[in-house]
Amino acid sequence: MRTRNALFALLSFFAFNMANAQQLPQFSQYMNNPYVLNPAASSLTHDIDIALGFRQQWAGFDGAPQTYYVGGTINLGKQPAAPGKLYSIPISHPGLLKSKPSVRYGKHVVGGLIARDEYGVFQRSSVMGSYSYHHPIGDEYWVAGGLSLGWYGFSFDRNNIILENDFDNTYNDFIANGSNSNIFDINAGVYVYSDRAFAGYSVYQLGRNEINLGNEQSPLDLSEARLEMHHYVTSGYRFTVSENIDLTPSFMMKIRPPAPLSVDINLMAEWDRRFRLGFSYRNQDAVSIILGANLTDFMRLAYAYDYVTSEINDLSSGSHEVVLGFQFNRKNKK
């Protein structure tokens, strides 16, 4: 930054986001990794679920947001399958024989997420730990409730600032109260799911803590800016349309007043439970294409490209997001 105006513009962008817009990272692949939006959506299909993600928002725009994260969840333990009584089954009634008699038990899942967001000269780091309990409903569904607790760290990188005037009042006033802020916060969520359907609700930044950057004398006062609650609603259902093809329509709503309601409408096609192609529309923001594949029995890779439809389109070549996942199952206890 070589001019006072450029610095002021960056501070204005940050202040606007803290006061009016979405304060949390944008994700286009929530359906591939729902845990980033809901602490209850943990270890849904496998005992151990690990994901690494990167998102470049608005590529080509100087100082545009970048997000890096690594997260994982683990089911603490499986109950052994209930021993079935052995009967003599007449050969004329083979349907009476169950190959795997079992009883469904509740699941206790712990997890963690480490993330870093960079936008211009500002950085936000977070370390979160979570716990969720999953209770079976009938033969197919589960209902889960989860909490995550952790630390947010906000920082202003003064080393990347080059001032033409060492006595720049905007800069000096802004950093007068320190260039770092540490916050502890809590998130919560519920999730209902089966192997075909899911529906969830989560709320983030319940503490609504103050950020405390800058001071009251700064032209852009962030000393009393707060983390505001963000609400997420998700739902989807997988339909089988042929022997090898499934279609999953889904949606996600992000609610953070006074910012406008954000709605994602998605359609994911899956072939042979291995290859995926999806399309997404986010109102007043972007349209996305998503490609994914299971590279091995335990590793999957997905990529999303967002074509920006908002006014920033003239300054950006789009957004890119990559998610690499690893999933494992533990053996039942003997």
Give a structural overview.
By secondary structure, the protein is mainly beta. The chain has a single domain (4-81, 104-328), classed as Porin (Beta Barrel), CATH 2.40.160. The chain has helices at residues 4-19, 169-175; strands spanning 48-56, 66-75, 107-119, 122-137, 141-156, 180-193, 197-204, 230-237, 239-240, 245-255, 262-271, 275-282, 286-294, 299-308, 319-328. Strand 10 and strand 11 (262-271) form a beta hairpin.
Observed structural traits:
334 residues; mainly beta; 14-stranded antiparallel beta barrel; globular
Distance between the termini: 63 Å
Q: Whole-number average pLDDT? A: 82
**Oligomeric state, counting identical vs distinct chains:** single chain
User: Could you say which structural class the secondary elements and strand pairing correspond to?
Assistant: mainly beta
Explain the layout of strands and helices.
Blueprint lengths: L3 H16 L28 E9 L9 E10 L31 E13 L2 E16 L3 E16 L12 H7 L4 E14 L3 E8 L25 E8 L1 E2 L4 E11 L6 E10 L3 E8 L3 E9 L4 E10 L10 E10 L6
Antiparallel strand pairs: 1-2, 1-15, 2-3, 3-4, 4-5, 5-6, 6-7, 7-8, 8-10, 9-10, 10-11, 11-12, 12-13, 13-14, 14-15
Short note summarizing the structure:
With 334 residues, this protein is mainly beta. It has helices at residues 4-19, 169-175, and strands at 48-56, 66-75, 107-119, 122-137, 141-156, 180-193, 197-204, 230-237, 239-240, 245-255, 262-271, 275-282, 286-294, 299-308, 319-328.
